[in-house]
Specification:
Distance between the termini: 63 Å
Strand order of the largest sheet: 1-2
Helix content: 55-70%
Shape: elongated
Strand content: under 5%
Bound molecules: zinc ion
Radius of gyration: 28 Å
Number of strands: 2
Number of domains: 2
Order of helices and strands: HHHEHHHHHHHHHHHEHHHHHHH
Structural class: mainly alpha
Length: about 400
């Protein structure tokens, strides 16, 4: 059994998240090796093999790495669990434990500066693949995946993540020759890379949002087809523990169909379906999403400008006591001056709840928690203006 010290349990926060370009060389070589098809030739059997290996290994990633290891959306036995990890690892996308650790972190901090791969924070290239080649993300913090590290065989497989792709490549070469290796294995491996990476990059940029999730996740049907269902990424961010990601009948989710079929023959069980209230978008949001959306809504107003307006108005507004005092003075001229003063008091305008609601309706998709968001956003806005007032202008 692997000693705990062999696991990287440490905090990776101190490590750099800058891309180390030389680390990309093996990855680039895999891409270049695809051109060896010029010499091996391309036969229809190899193309069929590529399609088969693509579908099988994509299921390993979506049904295994994602829906099982990262989200535990269904249960299975120890042997099946190992086979899923092996199948997914044969796609040369690191180990199941590394994948799950990074992915759980992604959901915890989606599209915030802490996110592992957010196109909003670090751009498309970084979120697509750059992040993988950084010292920070080469390592994974295994403290959040104790449910997986308790299996020594998974720890071993994760540590020796290069074994499954080498075994699969060798078997393919042995059975299908050089053209099988290049076209069947390498072409499908490269296609798997980019289809999977698109979920981290494109599925947070392009597509429609049905649910308010506090992040930029989208539903994208083209990606859903290419990744056997993962393109329903906004659905997934809205309810992560669901085994199915296509919530409506027309949202094609091949991984779900496969898992469902596996449950019929007893290979997997306890598959977790989304509640009807979630599918119908009638579920109230959690505090984390409400807080994030409220902060986004409050930030859409210019707090500095509002603060400056309030400060300006307060500086030129007499207090009630001052007004009363002047009115009490008998002089007619004083009264006239006070009346004109009162007439010209112009208090600055803090956005009303209705104005916030109108803006929220433009910014966010429908949610039963809209009033909570608006209420919280107004609190944040007023608090921000008040703390702005506490700071003396330069
Ligand atoms: Zn995501
Ligand atoms: Zn996920």
């Amino acid at each position: 059994m692997t000693a705990p010290s062999d696991l990287d349990r440490g905090d990776t926060a101190a490590l750099s998240d800058d891309i180390v370009y030389p680390a990309m060389i093996p990855f680039i070589l895999v891409h270049l090796a695809c051109f060896a098809a010029i010499w091996t030739g391309v036969y229809w059997q190899d193309v069929l093999l590529a399609v088969g290996l693509y579908i099988a290994r994509m299921f390993g990633i979506t049904g295994g790495y994602h829906r099982y290891f990262s989200h535990r959306s269904y249960k299975t036995g120890r042997v099946m669990q190992f086979l899923l990890a092996f199948l997914a690892e044969s796609s040369a996308q690191r180990g199941a434990l590394w994948w799950a650790a990074k992915h759980r972190h992604h959901h915890k901090y989606s599209d915030t500066p802490m996110d592992v791969h957010s196109p909003k924070q670090k751009g498309f290239f970084y979120s697509h693949l750059g992040w993988i080649f950084t010292p920070k993300h080469d390592k994974a913090d295994y403290r959040g995946i104790g449910d997986l590290t308790k299996f020594p065989e998974l720890v071993w497989l994760d540590k020796h993540y290069y074994v499954p792709p080498i075994v699969m490549g060798t078997v393919v070469w042995f059975l299908a020759g050089w053209s099988g290796l290049v076209v069947g294995f390498l072409w499908s491996t490269v296609a798997l890379y980019h289809a999977t990476f698109c979920i981290n990059s494109l599925a947070h940029v392009m597509g429609r949002r049905r649910y308010l999730t506090g992040d930029d996740s989208r539903n994208n049907w083209a990606l859903a087809i290419a990744t056997l269902g993962e393109g329903w990424h906004n659905n997934h961010h809205a309810y992560q523990s669901s085994v199915r990601q296509g919530f409506r009948w027309w949202e094609v989710d091949v991984s779900y169909y496969i898992i469902k079929a596996m449950s019929w023959v007893g290979l997997v069980w306890d598959i977790h379906e989304p509640p009807a209230s979630v599918v119908r978008n009638e579920q109230r949001l959690g505090t984390k999403v409400i807080e994030t959306a409220a902060a986004q809504l409050a930030a859409s107003f210019q707090v500095e400008k509002l603060t400056a307006q309030v400060r300006e108005a307060l500086a030129h507004t007499p207090t009630l006591a001052e007004i009363e005092e002047r009115v009490r003075q008998a002089s007619e001229t004083a009264k006239v001056r006070v009346e004109s003063l009162v007439a010209h008091i112009h208090l600055p305008h803090i956005p009303t709840t209705d104005e916030l609601r109108q803006r929220a309706a433009k910014m966010f998709v429908r949610t039963p928690s809209m009033d909570d968001i608006v209420e919280r956003a107004r609190q944040i806005l007023i608090a921000n203006v008040c703390s702005g007032l506490a700071v003396k202008p330069a």
